[in-house]
Amino acid sequence: MGSETATVARSSIERQRLTSRTTPLAIKGAAVLGLLFLAIPIIGVLTKAPWSTMPEVLANESTRQAIWLSLWTSTLTTAVALVIGIPLAFVLARAQFRGRALARSLVILPLVLPPVVGGVALLAAFGRGGLVGRPLFEIGSVTIPFTWVAVVMAQLFVSLPFLVITVEGALRTRGRDLEEAGAVLGLSEARIIMRITLPMIRPAIVAGAVLCWARALGEFGATITFAGSLPGVTQTLPTDIYYTLARDPGESVALSMILIAICVLVLWVLRGNWAGQVIARE
Amino acid sequence: MLALSPRIWSVGLATLGTIVSGPTLVGCAAEDSVPQRELVVAAAASLNVPFDLLAADFERANPDVEVAMTYGGSSTLAAGIVAGSPIDVFASANQTTMDFVADSGLAASSPLVFAANRMAVALPQQNRAGIEDLADLSADGVAVAMCQPEVPCGEGAATVMDRAGIELVPATYEPDVSAVLTKVRTDQVDAGFVYASDVVTSGGGVSDIPIPPELNTTTSYPITSLADTTLPELAARFVEFVLSDVGQSILVQSGFLPRSQG
Lengths: 282, 262
Hints:
The structure holds two protein chains of two kinds. Chain A is mainly alpha-helical. In chain A, 81% of the residues lie in helices and 0% in strands. Chain A contains 15 helices and no strands. In chain A, helix 9 runs antiparallel to helix 10, helix 11 (202-218) crosses helix 15 and helix 13 (237-247) packs antiparallel against helix 14 (249-269). The model of chain A has no long low-confidence stretch (mean pLDDT 87). Chain B has two domains: 35-115 and 220-261, Periplasmic binding protein-like II (D-Maltodextrin-Binding Protein, domain 2, 3-Layer(aba) Sandwich), CATH 3.40.190.10; 117-218, Periplasmic binding protein-like II (D-Maltodextrin-Binding Protein, domain 2, 3-Layer(aba) Sandwich). Helix content of chain B is 41%, strand content 22%. Chain B contains nine helices and ten strands. Chain B has helices at 6-32, 48-61, 74-82, 95-103, 152-164, 177-185, 196-201, 232-243, 245-253; strands at 37-44, 65-72, 89-91, 112-124, 144-147, 172-174, 191-195, 206-209, 218-225, 257-258. In chain B, strands 1, 2, 3, 4, 5, 6, 7, 8, 9 and 10 form a ten-stranded mixed sheet that branches. In chain B, helix 2 (48-61) links the parallel strand 1 and strand 2. In chain B, helix 2 (48-61) runs antiparallel to helix 9 (245-253) and helix 3 (74-82) runs parallel beside helix 4 (95-103). Chain B starts with 5 loop residues before the first helix and ends with a strand. Mean pLDDT of chain B is 86; it is low at 1-32. The chains are: A mainly alpha, B alpha/beta. The A-B interface holds A 101, 104-105, 108, 111-112, 123, 127-129, 141, 143, 145-146, 165-166, 168-169, 172, 207, 224, 227-231, 234-235, 242-243, 245-247, 249 and B 1-5, 7-8, 12, 73, 75-76, 78-79, 82-83, 141, 143, 145, 148, 150-151, 169-175, 183, 186-189.
């Protein structure tokens, strides 16, 4: 027993040494390049930031409206994504049915589509002349575009895949031993899901929700195409940034800083919850 | 985390292959003819139709030249130019935006007015909201699109409604006039503020209601070659062509007023 532990320990040390010794310079160089490519634009924004006018920009009514709208719509989007996304991930990971490959492709599609195409598709479906939108408008005189509902729908369309794919991946890779043990002990299926499966994949759910939320917060192309832009109603922070760029590039940089700050803050607050636990369990 | 199936990857790679190899083929074809010089012209979104025609005519007259058109909201284009976008000629939908570029020392010579335009209210063909005059636009449940206030067409729309003394909250502010026109053509809104030329160039896609002349505004379109162009002589020739009789008749056919009325 003791010698076995020692062997395991030794081999793990050797593996560590091997890892650090064999990371070739070329790989390190490329890694630094990759990191710089991501860091330089952020540094660029920082150098252009009009720090002196920041309080003024923050006090601006339309800025506050845009920040508030972005925050609550992306949070609502994430809530809806959790409610429909986790079951979807369950079905994709575990159910056997015809057309599962098609269903998976549908989930992945918004990831590879330009968001503006998502906006056009949403218009074609839910716009006043659209597949679903026309009967809604003609019978119930309901118009979805240009409302906050359209903002949330645009965000959900582009961000739901992030949650579904993350959770589905976790469900596929986790073993089912604990769940089987639960079944042997006579737990109902509902209890197994609530008490065993969901806690087991909690880090993946949190990670997926964060990705989903961040993607929704940054959503622009589908939103401007499908929901339009009206301050206080559908003008989110990214749209505001884009419009302000034409009027006052300095203010646009200030608004970009705010968006970056919000994202950094959220990632930092959730770091223990997310990266920490995912790594600890791997 | 993004565990894509092998099939998705292979489809993705195949698509990527097509995209990468596409331009190469075009490049080979171009080398067989004459070496190309590329003139980049940035123009206000409302100039889309006449400038595509102008660019084609200019290319026919100068077979070694390829005119690359880029359209957008005037102030977006101006912001790009001031930030250093490699553009040779700039045609703006108003004087203020052009002044912003000229004041930054980026105009090669003083900008010249080459056309003028009036505002118009475009309606979808069905006109389900039964709009007949400006006052109908502010009725309950009428969705109106206009450009964001920062771009000339948004400024024009605000001026018209101001002069008419009608308070109007639009359903949406769009980034440029093309976006407004699209919202009208696809019947997403009941009306949209566009330019008179847009109604003409939409080819019957939209109808319009008359704006009383005393309420309407005329915007002048200035053009200039830019100081940083690598093709100053060619850029100047393009500007001359737009101001020439041929250029002017193309603009008038597209619903613009000639420069004499700007």
